[in-house]
Amino acid sequence: MELRDVPEPAPSDGEMLIRIRAAGLNPVDCKIRDGKMRLLNRLDLPMVAGSELSGVVERIGAGVTRFAVGDRVFARVDKTKLGAYAPFVVVDQTLVTKMPKALDFADAAGLPLAGLTALQALRDELALTAGDRVFISGGAGGVGTLAIQLAVWMGAKVATTASPRGEELVRSLGAETVIDYESELQGPPRRL
Ligand SMILES: NC(=O)c1ccc[n+]([C@@H]2O[C@H](COP(=O)([O-])OP(=O)(O)OC[C@H]3O[C@@H](n4cnc5c(N)ncnc54)[C@H](OP(=O)(O)O)[C@@H]3O)[C@@H](O)[C@H]2O)c1
Fold it and tell me: In the prediction, which pLDDT does 191 show?
């Protein structure tokens, strides 16, 4: 990786130019830098790295209807284009959403990848509904902390794994059953 001056990108139809205020550093960004994702996603190098961001809409392309210049937004980028580690990025409007007022730019920039992973698993794959019981592994991690909160918000009861240092955190997020994976998973299975 190196610092370079690059031209400001221009939005095409359905895209928007975002002035970046913060960018997330997700584990996948390190894997991409190390070339470990190339079997899944072969990138056209050199390119600007960075997968998630928050910022302010600077310019909109034709056909962008849900956003206006000046909106505070956060987004993941197109996996084949990346581009969040720069002053400006162009993103398709379908990958962008407005930031809730209570969120600041730094917190918003770390949400898209881990948050979408949790949301897609619980809502799109599991179709979780109120009263369901769900097990979330690694509850104190990036995906786990968001998944617990989303599952509780959807009305589910949550069981999760956490080491003793993560127990208070996962309980504060709403997990009802906490399994200490360092000690409890060594023995025979127990009913949750
Ligand atoms: N982050 C993303 O955006 C993303 C997106 C797609 C997929 N994923 C995948 O989702 C998984 C979790 O990612 P993450 O970013 O949430 O990781 P993370 O922030 O590093 O969290 C992982 C959690 O796993 C727990 N853990 C460690 N060893 C364990 C064991 N032996 N048994 C049970 N739990 C254990 C740790 O719990 P304690 O803190 O309690 O020790 C830690 O909190 C990974 O497989 C990752 O590749 C992540």
Answer: 61
Phi, psi of 96 (to 5 degrees): -115, 145
Q: 76 pLDDT band (50/70/90 cuts)?
A: very high
* Ligand 1 pocket list (CB less than 6 A): 26-27, 113-114, 117, 137-138, 140-144, 161-163, 166, 181
* Numbered ranges of CATH 3.40.50.720 in the chain: 113-186
- Please list the residue range(s) of the chain that carry CATH number 3.90.180.10: 15-109
CB 57 within 8 A of CB 16: yes
* CA 140 / ligand 1 centre spacing (Å): 8
Closest approach atom of ligand 1 to CA 163: 40
Average pLDDT, the chain: 95
Return the CATH number of the domain spanning residue range 113-186. Answer: 3.40.50.720
Distance CA 75, CA 72 (A): 10
